[in-house]
Structures are given as structure tokens and as C-alpha cells.
Design a protein that fits this description.
Elements: H1 2-7, E1 9-10, H2 19-41, H3 49-52, H4 59-79, E2 82-83, E3 86-90, E4 98-103, H5 117-131, E5 137-142, E6 146-153, H6 156-163, H7 178-191, E7 197-203, H8 208-218, E8 222-228, H9 259-268, E9 273-275, H10 281-290, E10 305-309, H11 317-326, H12 332-340, H13 359-368, H14 372-378, H15 382-392, H16 395-405, H17 408-418, H18 421-434, H19 439-460, H20 470-502, H21 506-560, H22 567-581
Parallel strand pairs: 4-5, 4-7, 7-8, 8-9
Antiparallel strand pairs: 1-2, 3-10, 5-6
Helix pairs in contact: 2-4, 4-11, 7-8, 8-9, 13-14, 14-15, 15-16, 16-17, 17-18, 18-19
């Protein structure tokens, strides 16, 4: 009884709002009935009133009034849905979670399986994701340290989009420590609140002395399977700059597939060891292991239920039915009430995967749909935010984000898109210093250098009569003309003095003065025409300069399109930053 009282509540308490109009109508009707009866009682005897009044004015009308009020209250109470107990409804949720741990050590570049061990491993991951229909999947990579590529998610396309970027050169440190990969896998499962799960290790070798103790202590609740990549004969490890990897003594390294060690590792993890095959039989065998029900695993059973309260308001309808039968076909008023009753609403199943999408996962979906501006707003990771801003064309913000993240290659791409070629060249040089084998940065640097050389040549080949130099030339020409006029005036005065001393005829002197003044007037009249010609020439040259600038812009856009976007750089910067934060 105490439990019922503590759990008693109404599922739809807003239904009690209907009590306000009910009380108003009841009071108004009661006053009308009592008022009409009191008026006639002053004139007639009370015994005669039931026979004189239509409503009787007696006990029968009063009982009907209170029955109607009580029935209306019960109807409102039923609509409020009183409840005091729960109904356990099982929530069917597939907890078959799988974490894929991929080895990205240098030995995965071995080409004993064509085109290489790593490329074949990526193909197998893609096949596994395509054939696996249910459950959540996560992907992580490891070498000397482990890093999460994608957390547990139902969005398989997100993992597919990251596979091509998984190369050995994105790892900040070399090594082959499978234990750190398994530790990261267990952390992902525990963070998701999953007491059970599957782990798939894709590798060619393992250190049992370092890995088996961790499996027996920390992975008893999880099942570990191994996919062996490579051949027992092995092959040399090719280097990007040419040649093959060597040990400290100068001998060429030939990593071989450690079949025996990998089988022991799978046995210790209660899983299955599978060699990689040319067809998809290896993936089918692994899927049979992954599809084992969770209850068969040696872990605690967990049942998830949805708390749903039992609506007991329908029992009150049984108290209303007798009055409704008695009032059957009493009038249109009750029919109207019937139509005004709320109709049942459709119930829809809740999509649980929407509750588990992080802002980064939502932004990743928007990025795949090419909604780059929306993705840039939702991304919390600064490097992914910068990539979305770059795709959206906001190169200013992308440059700032890449600069903060220390991604010089992407910073150079953004600066090149903005047209800041010198700054882009400096960024590419810094990227090459950090990674001398970055061929994309070298290629972009060569393209930018060629473009800068073209701009220098265009500036050197510009005509001397450029618009900038013309005002200076005009000023010089005006000064020279004034100096010549002054010299002419001085010469004429000197000649006049000499002629006066020689005693020449004054008429001749006047004639010479007239001729000189006429020549000066002709010279002054010709200067405006020359100025007009110069202005027209300047306008023509300006039009030519504008044409050159538009052609230059088109050329810049063409070679900027040749700059490739490398998604692996983002992962490389991310892993490098996380590696620097580790103790």
C-alpha cells in the first residue's frame, strides 16, 4: 500500500484543466434550478410544485444533476490517466560491438601479399564492414602507441571514408606494440558501457610475453580474434626513398608471419585465429564468431528495460457506462461531447542511434553530404573544423586553424588558395623539414615556385611607360620646357644687347621679336594636344594591364586546382598531437 501511494501520479495531468469549465457550468446550472424553484415556492405550495413545474423541482432533478457532475468528473479523471505501477518492457538493442585494431608498423608495408600487407588488410576491413549488418564498430590503429580513428558507431560509411588514409607514415613513432592497441580497445568498450564485446586484431606479428598477461587479467569479459596478414616466407620492407629496411648490422629485414604466436594469442583471448585468404572465406569465418549471442560469453547477463507506466484510467470508464446507457439518446449535447473527446494518437518507436551521435559524428555526416559550412560549425576537433572550413571556401579561418594545429602542409594549401604565394612557400618548406619524404608538399612547393617566377618575369617585362612612371615623366618634361623657355629668354636679351651695341637697325629687332613670340605661341598651343595623346595612351595601357591581371587570376586558379587534398595529413597531425600529450 505504501508503494502504491508513493508511485501514484497522473500521466496526463493537463486534463484537469477541463475542471474549470465544468465547475462554471455546474454552478450556473445549480443557481438556475434553485432560483426558479424558490420563485414558485412563494406563490404555490411545495407539494404542488412537482406537478406544476416541467423539471419537477424535486429530488429526481437534483439527483440527475449531481450524477451528471460526478460522471463528468470521472471522465476528466480517466483522461488524466492515474497510475501507480510500472510495466517492464524489454528494449531490444543489439550490443554486438566490435573493435578493429589494425597494426600500422613498418612491417605492414611488406609486399609478400600484393599489393602489400597493409592494403590487403584495408580491403578486408571494408569487406567485413559491408557484410556485418548489425552492431556497433570502432576502428583504431597502433604501432608504438595506439590511436582511435573512429569510436563505436553504427555509421559504417564514416569508417569506410578513413580507410584510404591509413598508412604507416601517419604514425608519430615506429614500433609494434599490440598491447597498447588492446588496451585502447578495452577502453573504448568500457567507455561505451558495454560489459561484453568483440576485438579483432589485424597484424603479422605479436610479442606474447607482453600481451598475454594483459589478456588474462583485463580482457576476460571480451573475446579476442586475430586475422593474420602475410606469408610465412616473408619479404623485404620497401622504403619510400628506395631500397629496403635494414637492421643495426646492415642486414635486410625480412618480417615473416608469426602463425604460431598469433594462434596462441587468439586461444588466450577465447577467440578465433584466421589466416587472410584471397577470397572472402576468412571474413565469413570471423563473422560466425562475431555473431555468437552475448549470453554464451562467460560474462554477466544484463537486461535492459524501458520503464513504462500502466495507465489505469480505463477502469473508471466502467463507472461511467451505466450513466451513459441511462442518458442514451438524450440529446445532441451528449453527442457533441462524444465527438469532442480526444482521439488516440499514433505511437512511434524511438530511434536510439540518434541519441548516440556526438557533434563530431553529426559533423562528419554533414561533411560527407558536402555541407561543409554546417560541418565546420559542428566539428569540435580543430583539425576537422579547419578541413571543413577549407572545403567551404573560408580560407582565412582555415589558415588560422591549421596554424594553431601546426599543420604546415594544409596551411600552405589554404594560403595558396588565398593567393599568398610567398607565405604558402614558407609553409611548404616547413612541412618538408618535418617530413623530408612528403612528396605532396614537394610538388606543391615546385608549383608555387614556378608561379612566383612567372610573376617576377611579368613584372620585369612591363613597359617603362607604365602608369606609375608617367606622372614623373610629365613633371620632368614640364620642368625641361620651362628651363628651355628661360634659356631662350636669356639668350634673346643677350642678343638684343649685342645688337644694340653693334648699332643694328631697330626694325629688324622688332621683326625677330615677333617671330620668336609666334614660335612660343605655337609651342604652347601644341602642349594640350600632346597631353590628350598621353592620356589616351595611359588608358590603353591600363586596359592591357587589367587583361593581364584577369589572365593571371585564371592561371592561378588552374594551377591551384592541381594542389591535392590529403586526408591522411589530418590523422597524422592528430596522432602527433595526442602522442605529444602522452606521458
Amino acid at each position: 500500500m505504501t508503494e502504491i501511494l508513493t508511485n501514484f501520479h497522473f500521466l496526463r495531468p493537463y486534463a484537469f484543466l477541463a475542471l474549470a469549465p465544468l465547475i462554471y457550468l455546474a454552478i450556473k446550472n445549480y443557481r438556475y434550478r434553485s432560483g426558479s424553484t424558490a420563485h414558485w415556492s412563494t406563490i404555490c405550495d411545495r407539494e404542488l410544485l412537482p406537478y406544476l413545474l416541467e423539471n419537477g423541482g424535486g429530488k429526481q432533478s437534483t439527483v440527475a444533476f449531481w450524477l451528471a457532475c460526478g460522471t463528468a468528473f470521472l471522465t476528466i479523471l480517466a483522461l488524466a490517466a492515474p497510475t501507480w505501477e510500472r510495466l517492464p518492457v524489454p528494449a531490444f538493442r543489439n550490443n554486438a560491438s566490435l573493435v578493429i585494431a589494425l597494426n600500422l608498423s613498418e612491417s605492414m608495408n611488406t609486399e609478400d601479399t600484393k599489393p602489400s600487407r597493409l592494403v590487403r588488410a584495408r580491403y578486408k576491413i571494408a569487406d567485413l564492414l559491408s557484410q556485418r549488418k548489425e552492431g556497433q564498430t570502432a576502428l583504431l590503429v597502433y604501432s608504438d602507441a595506439a590511436f582511435t580513428v573512429t569510436p563505436l558507431t553504427n555509421d559504417i560509411e564514416t569508417i569506410h571514408s578513413q580507410l584510404e588514409a591509413l598508412t604507416t607514415d601517419i604514425m608519430p613513432a615506429e614500433g609494434n606494440n599490440a598491447r597498447v592497441g588492446l588496451e585502447k580497445a578495452v577502453d573504448l568498450l568500457k567507455q561505451a558501457g558495454l560489459p561484453q564485446g568483440q576485438v579483432l586484431l589485424i597484424t603479422d606479428s605479436v610479442d606474447l610475453s607482453n600481451t598475454v598477461p594483459f589478456i588474462t587479467k583485463e580482457m576476460s569479459a571480451y573475446r579476442l580474434s586475430v586475422l593474420g596478414v602475410g606469408t610465412s616466407e616473408g619479404a623485404p620492407i620497401p622504403l619510400p626513398e628506395g631500397g629496403f629496411a635494414k637492421d643495426d648490422e646492415g642486414k635486410i629485414l625480412i618480417p615473416k608471419l608469426q602463425t604460431t604466436e598469433l594462434k596462441k594469442l587468439a586461444d588466450a583471448g577465447n577467440g578465433k585465429f584466421q589466416l587472410m585468404t584471397a577470397d572472402d572465406s576468412d571474413i565469413k569465418n570471423l563473422l560466425q564468431t562475431f555473431d555468437v549471442p552475448l549470453t554464451e560469453l562467460p560474462t554477466e547477463k544484463t537486461n535492459s528495460f524501458l520503464d513504462q507506466w500502466d495507465d489505469n484510467g480505463h477502469w473508471l470508464i466502467l463507472l461511467i457506462l451505466p450513466w451513459a446507457a441511462w442518458q442514451f439518446r438524450k440529446g445532441a449535447f451528449y453527442l457533441a461531447i462524444l465527438f469532442l473527446l480526444p482521439l488516440p494518437k499514433n505511437s512511434y518507436a524511438l530511434e536510439w542511434q540518434d541519441l548516440w551521435h556526438t557533434p563530431n559524428q553529426q559533423a562528419q555526416r554533414a561533411f560527407q553530404k558536402q555541407q561543409f559550412a554546417q560541418a565546420a560549425e559542428k566539428f569540435e576537433n580543430p583539425e576537422w573544423k579547419a578541413a571543413a572550413q577549407y572545403k567551404a571556401g573560408d580560407f582565412n579561418k582555415a589558415t588560422e586553424q591549421f596554424q594553431q594545429a601546426g599543420s604546415f602542409y594544409n596551411q600552405g594549401n589554404a594560403l595558396a588558395k588565398k593567393g599568398q604565394l610567398k607565405e604558402a612557400l614558407a609553409a611548404y618548406e616547413q612541412a618538408i623539414k618535418e617530413n623530408p619524404y612528403d612528396n605532396d608538399a614537394k610538388f606543391n612547393k615546385e608549383v608555387v615556385e614556378k608561379e612566383l617566377e612567372k610573376q617576377k618575369q611579368n613584372q620585369e617585362n612591363k613597359p617603362q611607360n607604365s602608369p606609375e612612371s608617367k606622372p614623373q615623366e610629365n613633371e620632368k618634361s614640364e620642368k625641361d620646357a620651362q628651363e628651355k623657355q628661360n634659356e631662350n629668354k636669356e639668350d634673346s636679351t643677350a642678343e638684343q644687347k649685342q645688337e644694340h651695341k653693334a648699332g643694328e637697325n631697330p626694325d629688324k629687332k622688332e621683326a625677330q621679336k615677333k617671330e620668336d613670340s609666334a614660335e612660343e605661341q605655337k609651342a604652347q598651343e601644341s602642349t594640350p594636344e600632346k597631353q590628350d595623346e598621353q592620356k589616351s595612351q595611359q588608358a590603353k595601357k591600363q586596359v592591357e594591364m587589367q587583361k593581364e591581371t584577369t589572365e593571371q587570376q585564371q592561371a592561378n586558379e588552374q594551377w591551384l586546382k592541381r594542389i591535392p587534398d590529403d586526408p591522411a595529413v589530418l590523422l597524422k597531425r592528430k596522432f602527433k598531437y595526442q602522442y605529444s600529450q602522452q606521458p
